[in-house]
């Protein structure tokens, strides 16, 4: 078959060349070629080589807008089946569903671990090809779908992007038909919290510790830490930070206590944390007595850690003895001149400095740091810690020495204890509800307040027992002195005033019917109809009317409807205005209208302005033509050409033809002409007689310096069979003709009459002298020139040794030196041959030239004669 290049705005139904389906149902195909034979013919688009054939329509469902009957030409891949012809009735177009997708965002760890799973692809042609992602905009993501290298193929039902940083991402997908959709989502993964290890080591001599921070992790890898230790986490977080420059940060000479250090991410100072450490090198509170003797005559300082763990220093006069309470774990440092001895057996102590002398039998009453309760009075508890005392390890309370059994611990409890079994029930009404409360009595003899409580927790208490009997719950109805219409009966309204009644404050009619706690409107029953608009129209006799309904339940026409002031009963009229849109019913045949085949329909909508009229349509177009209420003729247009002879025969390309014209207005060649019945050489064609009437130029030729010209005439009979040898003719006069064949036209341009002087050769023979200058001798060789063949003195050849009495001059060789190291030196000199030379010498350079003596000009350069030369 032949090949035809077309530009389409749609996709052609290959079984019907007049059926072009809308472009929004297909991939765009432009500037392509049809290949194969129908129905296997397919369309190959030049751009992208997209194949469009009978299987390339919508798969699955179609969504139509308007009053439409969609009967496509092919089989779908889903739940529908196409039937022949695709006819859209009414103003209808096929609208693809918008392309949509869902995104699921998650973080597998911290920042940089974001993941987006894109899925649930829907809409469009329901078959998807590419996906793209952008951090710039939705438009950028959509543009990436068209560029290879910035998009990814969709091969499964979802697509995953991993290892994403925090931020907003725009995602776009494209279906196999080129339709696109986009969405956006945000990743906000948290940073890994910073962390570190904090510990300490003790110095047994000083009693201090070294706090050590190390093993820094989390954040972005660079850190800042507290410049000093702090006494609270809040102070550490608000304090001064310094850069962490090594793997370990130390805080030296730290006394006992709880200390706090803060660490933060240098690149994100919001990410910070604190750690605490307890420095416990000195065991404060666990102390022993030491005997210290100054064996010298001089005063010596005794340094130690007291029982509170604080460093202390006491001056010991010469020859003195004293006893000191020293914290366990901190051995006093030996000092020359002082004898330091721990009491043996050990004598515990709690004072800050002094203690009893070793071996004393006096009791040492040490506060046990707790209280005990006796007869509702709280006392401190003491214990004798002197092993030499007779009351050693016994306890003393209120100056009474007891046994070695520790008294019970705790202050006297003076709060009430209502936790015992309830002694009865207290009833209290409010808002029509009976509230029951269990009453409990206090069992703690040290509590002197209210002895009765509502509940075991004692939040509401009573000085006397509030237990009472269950209240009366019957209604107490009080007239409200107005009427109310209930179920279309007028009643006097009452209200329940018993606060213990379950219907307290409710309104009643007919003594038994509750209307709730909102007062009903006062008034007797009204039986007048209340015609209320139903906010919709109905169609009656092709006229739109607003629909009303009687909403008064006491009216005899309650729930009846009214249309155009007419009661139409209690059945709601249909909702909707009169439908004036035509119902175009196919008549099952085509007709020919203005040389096009149109499907014939009839409007069967009674309220339509074109009711019972016949409507013409060309599927799948949406243009309809009303041709009135007379049925059009049945049958498609006849498109066969009707050729009729027109005028006399004509000669075309030496062939005789009969002109004809197509007189069928429905034919594709209507009103065009053609030549028929061709006969070569028949009248009016002439193949034997040439006609030299066409001026075809001038032939110029020269003789003895004279220009002659002859006119050239061309044969104007294209049918002449002698054109190969006699297409052109030149008339030289007196019946003297010369003939030329095709492509042999001798016409030329007017010749130049300008003399063409050339030197006669050899120049050593043909020359002239004037003084000692030699000239060449020349001849005009242009036969069309008036001076053709004549000679003259030619150009100057110059002064040449041996000619015209010239003798050569003696030349000298010169060195020219440019002493300037920045700029060129410009020179000139006369060559031995007689011509003058202009040249330059580069910075710091030397040039040698051969010149006629005394003709060198070198500005500021240095010129040196280095001998004769001959060149």
Q: Would you mind describing this structure in some detail?
A:
This protein is mainly beta and 871 residues long. The protein has three helices and 65 strands. The model is unreliable at 1-31 and 33-93 (pLDDT under 50).
Helix content: under 10%
N/C terminus separation: 83 Å
How is the biggest beta sheet arranged?
Answer: 4 strands, antiparallel
Content-based structural category: mainly beta
Output the strand order for the largest sheet.
1-4-5-6
Task: Please state the overall shape, judged from the principal axes of the Cα atoms.
Answer: flat
Question: Per DSSP, what share of the residues sits in E-state strands of 2 or more residues?
Answer: 35-45%
The overall pLDDT, averaged over residues, is: 83
What's the helix count? Answer: 3
For the secondary structure, the number of strands is 65
Poorly predicted regions are 1-31, 33-93
Short description:
The protein is an all-beta fold.
